Amino acid sequence: MTNSGPARRFAGLGFRTRFRAMTTSPEPDQAGSESRGDLQVRRGRGRPRDPETDGRITSAAAELMLQRGFDRTTVDDVAALAGVGKATVYRRWPSKEDLAVAAMETLYTAEIPEPDTGSIKTDLAAVYRSVLEFVNTPEGAAFLRTSIAESVRDERIAELYRGATERREAQSRATFERAIERGEVRADLDIDSAIQWLGGLLANRAITHRPMPTVDDADTLVQLTLRGVLA
């Protein structure tokens, strides 16, 4: 299996990510020094901690968690996929829970570009199509399910998910504010409700294991939104 990383596959669906390209060559387990913020922690002789190795490990962990879930993902399997020794993983993250947090954090760097076409209708259509295309891929469906499940299990992941959601909502809020300035949308609009309802629909479908709306449903969902917001 090539460890290209799930976040890289998101980029192919119109998402931006800072996730770097990974290699699969194994790194010998060596002690070294690692940086934690402004502190330099000495761990004996050897090379400093390698960010590229960190990336390979978190990419492998994210990929396996999306495929299998947290409970069925083992550190042994993560190490094998990343091409490193098990000790290399534990030297960076003392528990599987800590590794899961780091892995999920890499996924939440992906963002949907926010269009600015000059029309609320075409802006919404572009965003809805991107979102619906994403959640109807195996990676997208797994990402949504894993985000929900892991947020319940670990408050640290919940904070990451919440932060990513708030960044996305800030983008959408700007879209509606521009539409208000153009006179397209009511000035008294409850913007939060307008931007959260699609996410709520998708989360409900994921939790109840019902089929997701598809890209073919995008225009219908846009019309439902516009009925509640137009001036």
Look at the structure and give the CATH class of the largest domain: Mainly Alpha
Number of beta-strand segments: 2
- CATH architecture label name of the largest domain: Orthogonal Bundle
| Number of individual domains | 2
The gross shape turns out to be: elongated
Q: Give the terminus-to-terminus CA distance.
A: 52 Å
Describe this structure in words.
- By secondary structure, the protein is mainly alpha-helical.
- It has two domains: 6-107, Arc Repressor Mutant, subunit A; 120-229, Tetracycline Repressor, domain 2 (Orthogonal Bundle).
- Helices cover 61% and strands 3% of the residues.
- The chain is built from ten helices and two strands; from the N terminus they run αββααααααααα.
- Strands 1-2 form a two-stranded antiparallel ribbon.
- It is elongated.
